[in-house]
Amino acid sequence: QVQLVESGGGLVQAGGSLRLSCAASGRTFSSYAMGWFRQAPGKEREFVAAIRWSAGTTYYPDSVKGRFTISRDNAKNTVYLQMNSLKPEDTAVYYCAARARSFYSGYSPSADTSYDYWGQGTQVTVSS
Q: 37-72: per-residue pLDDT in tens?
């Protein structure tokens, strides 16, 4: 079993920054990719960022490109999401996800079905 634990959420003013962390643990954890998604009340879950664990290739939607940065620490099995220039519309519960399958069958970073494990989420609230 793999556990993903997010931390770092909170309340911040518009224009501010937050850094989310997602620590992965469990028996023989090995991830091919990790991603961040978010879900605001009444809205569908939305892709925020992803990173291929080995190559470090990153992916972002236009809504956060240039403001958010995903990174990983291999030694700590931890992925980070640095969020700058936050806007009220970034308010949501942020979820970390991990992919334990190879890329042989293809990989769509923005699809939640591309990931096998999910964290419990951390709330990010951006006030105007």
A: 999 999 999 999 999 988 899 999 999 999 999 999
What are the structure tokens assigned to 118, written together? 């999910």
Instruction: Dump pLDDT digits (tens) for 99-121.
Output: 988 888 899 999 999 999 999 99
Residue 54 CA to residue 66 CA, distance in Å, equals 22
DSSP states of the chain: -EEEEEE--EEEETT--EEEEEEEEETT---SEEEEEEE-TTS--EEEEEEETTT--EE--TTTTTTEEEEEEGGGTEEEEEE-S--GGG-EEEEEEEE-S-STT---TT-GGG-SEE---EEEEEE-
Q: Token pair for residue 61?
A: 């939607």
